[in-house]
Amino acid sequence: MSKISTDTNPARLKGGERTLVLAIPQEDCGEVNIGGRGYVLSKDDAAVLSPGMDFDGGLNPHGGWRLVLSVPLETVMELPSPFDTDLVSHARHRPVVPLTEHELGMLERLYGMLRSTLSESQSPFGEEVAKSIVFAMLYRLGNIYARLGNGRDLDTAGSNERLSDEFFALLARHYKTERKVSFYAGRMSVTPKYLTRAMLKITGKSAKQWLDEAIMLEIKNLLRTSDLTVLQISEALGFSTPSAMIQYFRKHSGQTPARYRKDGKW
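Now predict its structure.
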């Protein structure tokens, strides 16, 4: 499992598949590439890399990094929803944010406290203290995004739409053979928990509910419009056995496939 990291000299600054990265350079970097797009990064800016988003500006900016914080997405998701999903969405849309002198000072002080805490090998509550400091830094980051317009100029709706569009596109291609939310989350470089919360917030249904709905519609369609046996349908949809499909169908419809076919056959 990935852990909180404060390495200020990474071989390459990168948002891992399950990591959010906050980084502040020592000196102006000029034009850099983040997630395939060009940005200007100065010493008064913070780069915020959402999961899977790379920084391309050489191994390090000109004078190195004064602050690099890598936070596992699982830790970010422990923040109260919807703050957690909003923060990742804002980072995807606006990975470079300008800092006031006060904001920079607060982040650096918290960062110093975090590094000191992580170095205490005999602290019985060191992990809890470190996590609390990380939460404080993420809330400070949230305040910065709020100052920039409280999300209004960050196209959150557009970002949410892109996330849901990506999920539904994957669902349309794979629902017949992939019935675990973890599969879709992995393809989107987020955790199952994040995808579940995000889809619930955006659409009113969780990723699992959408997945179950797609599978059930397909089973019902095949039962109504084809002469395929339960065995053939279960094999076509990747169930381990016909019994597994029967149990799944009964759980979500309250009746067996045979009963449904008898009642609804055209």
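Residues 85 and 198 are 6 Å apart (CA to CA).
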